Amino acid sequence: MSQTLILARRNLLHVLADPEQLIGLTIQPLMFLLLFVYVFGGAISGSTRGYLQFVLPGLLVQGIAFGTAQTAAGLNADFQRGLIDRFRSLPIGRSAVVAGRVTADLLRTAWSTLIIVAVAVALGFRFHGGWGGVLGAACLALAVGFGMCWLMAFLGVSLRSAESVQAAGFMLVLPLTFASSVLVPAASMPGWLQAFVKVNPMTIFADAMRGLMLGGPVATPLVQAAAWVAGITLVFGALTVRRYRTRS
Amino acid sequence: MDELAIQTERLGKSFGSKRVLNELDLEVPRGTIFGLLGPNGAGKTTAVRILTTLLAADTGRARVLGFDVARRPQQVRKVIGLTGQYAAVDDLISARENLYMIGRLLGLRARAARRRGAELLAAFGLADAAGTRVRAYSGGMRRRLDLAASLVGRPAVLFLDEPTTGLDLASRNQLWEMIRDLAADGTTVLLTTQYLEEADRLAGQIMVIDHGRTVALGTPSELKGLAGGQVLEVRPLHEADAAAAARVLAGLAGVGTPGTEGDLLTVQVPDEELVTAAARSLDSAGIPVSHLAVRLPSLDEAFLAITGHPAEADADAELEGAGR
Fold first, then answer.
1. Are residues B73 and B141 both part of a single domain?
2. Coil, strand or helix: which one is A90?
3. N or C: which end of chain A has fewer CB within 10 A?
4. Identity of the residue in B53, B80, B93 whose CB atom sits nearest the CB atom of A10
5. To 10 degrees, what angle do helices A69-80 and A48-67 make?
6. Out of B54, B104, B153, closest to residue A85 by CB
């Protein structure tokens, strides 16, 4: 556990030492928020204000999914630099390096999420789920980030080059977040696509987030979201740790 | 207590159909520097990766301080340090933070980790750059930091995989000095290298390997004997004298047949006294020379002398072994 924190500290030092990363972490999610709300808002919801209410919970999920790509890139870079060899030759826990990475990336995700919410509230977003909803949304955001980090960690330890990691992360997250209820309601999509949207975990995460932030039915999407997060974490956590140990 | 720091028995490893290690037997007594010498692809890196628990062997067994690397890897990791071919340090943080991180990972408390880091940075001449991000370091500084990083836990057995490849002469000498100091303090060092000179300067015992099997084992002087002694280089001042100079050298008793590298004549001299004799004979034959030097045979020359065939660089195998 303490080894995980030591390694998480090292990953966070990267962010502090690199102001560009910090700016990216802060500006990029904001850019998404402003572009989506002011470019598409009127066309989709009739008003930017109305779209902001609809889209913010979805954008949080999307931002988390994109943000965790850093987990894949960071782990891959550690392999490239030969640092993983050093870590593996030290008497430390087999999951400490990946867990340290995930911990640091969760903090980064939390930071980005807080920034978007703060700006959205300033632009007129209002919570309708009460304090319980706010708290629940925060917990859900961390849980989704946690699950996605392990999925990305697996990409990071499995693929060889930084380019293929980036391409794979992008090709995974982009369709998943667009072919979902993250940005628009699924009702206007063709039937075959709706079938996919329905089972897409991003839809489930976004619906659960909406329920918590806007008030509405939450029980079913929350249970489904929890199942997805647990499933992703178990499967990809085990695969990642195994791959981390045996990759030569 | 086990007298041997490192021991392997019939160690074997293949990558696909390629045999990288073939029944390698290795014994390194405690407190000595052991040189593992061979061309690219000989299996040096693979052997080091197996001994440092990074790679599993297919056959045979390996022990470090008596601990089996396959069965008790965590015990092995507690007593070893590893410096690989590529400086494995985090270049986005400072040298101080690198060493602090490793100290903490090894179980030191915060203050002890800071102290140990400062100690090593001072010893390796990096104290002035301690707070600088490693990205700004020169190649030599990075290697020194890499070596420092593998010493944080005061390992009893240190593995150095081609520690000076790509370094300039000054940095190389500096690193050699540090390695000798470590051995003088009782650390066992296993060093892989492609340079006979490096092995000669540092190691008490040298094993030459090729295609994963041992081709020679001995002290540096025994090995130099096997390799046909030192090499005398002569460059006549006037190119027209080349043939005459070659005849003079060939006429010396006990000297091999002179070879040429451009305008440079090279000849193996098994006995060092022949060097003076060569200079005298050239002088009395009235052949002025612009360059007269004695050097150790290169790995290629030694290989040719020992194995009867030139060392073939087999980059693929070594690359697979290194996982890059």
1. yes
2. coil
3. N
4. B93
5. 20
6. B54
